[in-house]
């Protein structure tokens, strides 16, 4: 919970990837309150009993959302998909606004790689932004498995990471009022 709050404030992309990882962890723990407590909460010695209880409630809320949305086995919460849609909207706006000049240059390096990526990941109706997130998440899973040196993984990091990092940074600045999308 504390990690999610911090990531949401600091970097929307890391927040989304963190929640996706948490979804998979909750599934692996079969949404069991006992397993969640033992695995995710009890090892955190800095938490008092009241905080531990709040964390368990938060994890169970996410587990319940996954159930309500029919995503007990796979898929991502609508919350994160809406955030990605917001980021994609920003991506589209940056294609035409003065604020997006540097972003467009960064994105231009990735654009030729997207058809290959789409062929691997599938789902032709998926936005480019969601496609990038799915590739980043797959890359993260490969790294966890110790397969981070594969060419597909290094290519993903080389082309996608800079685009998503810049998009997330701009999103944060706009959200905090540090940047105005429409200033000349």
Give a verbal description of the structure.
The protein is built from nine helices and no strands. The protein has about 180 residues and is an all-alpha fold. It starts with a helix and ends in a 9-residue tail after the last helix.
Explain the layout of strands and helices:
Blueprint: H1 2-10, H2 12-28, H3 33-41, H4 49-68, H5 78-94, H6 101-110, H7 114-121, H8 128-144, H9 151-175
Helix pairs in contact: 1-2, 3-4, 5-8, 6-9, 7-8, 8-9
Report the count of strand segments: 0
Q: Tell me the span between the first and last alpha carbons.
A: 39 Å
The percentage of residues in β strands lies in: under 5%
Shape: globular
Please compute the radius of gyration using only Cα atoms: 18 Å
In round numbers, the mean pLDDT is 90
Please, how many helices?
Answer: 9
Task: Please bin the fraction of helical residues.
Answer: over 70%
The main sheet comes to: none
Regions with little confidence, pLDDT below 50 for 5+ residues:
none
Briefly note the structural class of the backbone.
mainly alpha
Order of helices and strands: HHHHHHHHH
Q: Which characteristics define this entry?
A:
mainly alpha; 184 residues
Quick summary of this structure?
The protein has 184 residues and is an all-alpha fold. The protein has helices spanning 2-10, 12-28, 33-41, 49-68, 78-94, 101-110, 114-121, 128-144, 151-175. It is built from nine helices and no strands.
């Amino acid at each position: 919970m504390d990690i999610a709050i911090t990531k949401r404030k600091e970097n929307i992309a890391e927040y989304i990837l963190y929640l996706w990882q948490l979804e998979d962890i909750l599934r692996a723990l079969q949404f069991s309150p006992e397993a969640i407590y033992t695995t995710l909460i009890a090892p955190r010695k800095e938490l008092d009993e009241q905080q531990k209880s709040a964390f368990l409630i938060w994890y169970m809320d996410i587990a319940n959302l996954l159930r309500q949305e029919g995503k007990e086995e796979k898929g991502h919460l609508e919350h994160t998909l809406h955030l990605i849609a917001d980021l994609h909207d920003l991506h589209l706006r940056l294609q035409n606004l003065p604020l997006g000049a540097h972003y467009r240059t960064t994105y231009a390096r990735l654009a030729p790689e997207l058809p290959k990526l789409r062929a691997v990941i599938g789902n032709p109706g998926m936005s480019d932004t969601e496609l990038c997130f799915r590739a980043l998440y797959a890359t993260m899973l490969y790294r966890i498995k110790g397969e981070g040196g594969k060419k597909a993984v290094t290519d993903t990091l080389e082309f996608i990471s800079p685009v998503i990092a810049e998009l997330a940074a701009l999103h944060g600045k706009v959200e905090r009022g540090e940047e105005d999308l429409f200033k000349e």
